[in-house]
Structure formats: C-alpha cells, structure tokens
Amino acid sequence: MPDPDDIDRPLLHLTKVAFRATSVDHLAERLLLRAADGPVFLTTRYLPKRHEEIAGDKAGGGSLFWILKHQLIARSPILGFGEAEGGRVAIHIDPALVLVHARPKRAHQGWRYLEAADAPLDLGGDATGLEAMPPALIGALAELGLI
User: Fold this and answer.
1) What letter would DSSP give residue 99?
2) 51-58: long-range contacts (C-beta < 8 A, 24 or more apart)?
3) Pick from 97, 90, 77: which is nearest to 21 by CA?
4) How far is residue 37's CA from residue 53's CA, in Å, rounded to a whole number?
5) What is the mean pLDDT of residues 35-53?
6) Mean pLDDT value of segment 70-87
7) DSSP alpha helices (H): ranges in the chain?
8) pLDDT band at residue 105 using 50, 70 and 90 as cut-offs
9) Is 142 exposed, middle or buried (0-12, 13-18, 19+ CB in 10 A)?
10) Which residues neighbour 70 within 8 Å (Cβ) at sequence distance 6 or greater?
11) Are 40 and 31 in contact (CB under 8 A)?
12) Cβ atoms 89, 44 nearer than 8 A
C-alpha cells in the first residue's frame, strides 16, 4: 500500500538512453533546439500500459529519466501522452532538464519503467552546492563515482 505522503506524487517514471548525446550540456541543447520548433516529444510504437500512473494528475506526472554513459543524469517532466504520425504514440516532455544525483543504470533499447522509490533525487535544495556546478563537471564527477 502506498505511503499516504506519496499520494500526490507520481509513482512511476520512464528511463531512456540519451542516444548520440555526448554530455549533459549537449542533451540540454538538443532539447531546447527542438522546443524552438514546437512541443518536444518522443515517439514510441505503443502507449505504455501503465501510462496513467506516469501521467498523474495532482503532481504533474512522472518524468523521463535520461541515461548518459551508464548513469541516470537528468530528467524531463512528462507532460502527457498523445498521438504521433503513423499511428505511433507521442510522449510529450518539458524541454528543460532537471539534473539529478547520478545513479548507475545500464543502457537499454526504448524506454523502461522506473519506480518512484528507485528514482534519484534532484540536485539542489540541500547543502552540497552541486546545483551551482557546471553540468559537464557534475557528469565527470559522477563517472568517477564521486557524487
């Protein structure tokens, strides 16, 4: 049974490899460039069976966590699901990346579910000062296992 404190929070997220992204900065730049052309979305063949758990209604929904160099490094809030060309499904995301405490994650094809209990916490809001560091430096420190 879910914790009563978690009722307003999404219980489920997705993970996806940041294909061809060379760094956190590169991924952020790619998403912002796509946002200039309209809403940012990823397409997939099938609607996730658990999409209602991801979409949420009070907390604004789950997030798409990005895997870069075998680390969960950032997330993009999922805004909703819709239709795309060719009968595919669009996963609409916020183009602004939210950096998270890096956590090891093996690469995979497509997307996978990530339970909220297993999701890394956002950077910032604590006394570490990590949110003030450049994303490239955070990525290098995460690769070394220092953060």
Assistant:
1) E
2) 51/81, 53/10, 53/11, 53/12, 54/10, 54/12, 54/13, 54/14, 54/78, 55/10, 55/80, 55/81, 56/9, 56/10, 58/7, 58/8
3) 97
4) 29
5) 93
6) 94
7) 24-36, 51-55, 135-143
8) very high
9) buried
10) 104, 105, 106, 107
11) yes
12) yes
- What does the pLDDT read at residue 130? 63
Look at residues 140, 138, 98, 127 and name the one whose alpha carbon lies nearest to residue 13.
98
- List of E strands, the chain: 12-17, 40-44, 63-68, 71-83, 89-93, 98-104, 111-115
CB 93 within 8 A of CB 64: yes
Residue owning tokens 């997330």: 75
Structure-token match 């979409």, residue found: 55
19: left (phi over 0), alpha (psi -120 to 50) or beta: beta
Contact 105, 15 (CB under 8 A): yes
Structure tokens at 40: 């940012």
Half-sphere exposure of 39 (CA within 13 A, CB side): 15
Q: How far is CA 119 from CA 24, 84, 88, 100, 142, in A?
A: 18, 28, 27, 9, 16
Does the predicted TM-score (pTM) go above 0.85? no
